[in-house]
Predict the structure.
Amino acid sequence: MEKSMIGKVAIVTGGSYGIGQSTAIALSKRGVKVVIADIIEDPFHQTLNSIVGAGGEAIFIRCDVSIAKEVQQLIEQTITSFGRLDFAFNNAGIEGINAKTHECSEENWDKTIAVNLKGVWLCMKYEIPEMLKHGKGVIVNCASIAGLKGFPGLPAYVISKHGIIGLTKTAALEYAKDGIRVNAVCPGVIHTPMIDRLTKNDPQAAAQYTAMEPIGRMGYPDEIAEAVVWLFSEAASFVTGTSLTVDGGIMA
Ligand code: NAD
């Protein structure tokens, strides 16, 4: 176990399912106290139960990351419950509706940008003041390989992820001398509920996503979680402003 992480406090947005769930559990295994923040409370409390069942500490806080008041309350409740904030994985995101640029509705555009891009900004807006109080903190924003290249049919998603990378670089520069590191992670195709929705569980559609992966398979959420844990850790103490691809070789 990485000793420097024991007793630290992390917020994981979108922690009910997928990459967020795996990251919350991976952080807990390092002794981190975890706030699982999500718009949906999983009825089976899978993230919470697997952390608490293994002897870890976690709470669930309902929060829509696109609403400022809810994000502000998320940070306030985190401080009330655990007294500090050391790490934040701003991961909550939606894929939006598949439609080419001229067919993308204004509603689809606004919703996707609100959750994916405004949501990450709002989280940082309220997380950073807490980190500044202690002169220390690490933020990891969940971008995507869609933040580095175009994907036909996903204009709002692609823009939101490109925006996250710009926001990450900007915040990294703004707070580099304040002890706060800010990085992004760019997953490739990772087998989560999001991919199941995109493929509609059709094996042929899933095979098309797998075919994008030079490594010959989809990634597991745990493989993103381990990269995020590393970015939070002291082992990454000189890493800020970067966008780490964890993508089975797609961007190569
Ligand atoms: P997922 O749909 O499996 O999980 C997303 C989580 O975010 C869910 O728990 C959901 O309830 C939550 N969420 C959605 N809207 C929210 C909101 N407004 N406020 C709070 N929580 C909200 O998706 P995933 O695949 O685990 O994706 C997690 C992140 O990884 C997303 O930002 C996604 O864009 C990114 N990503 C995923 C892949 C992939 O292949 N799965 C690839 C690249 C990037």
About this structure: Residues 172 and 182 are 5 Å apart (CA to CA). The domain at 3-188+220-246 is CATH 3.40.50.720 (Rossmann fold). The chain has a mean pLDDT of 97.
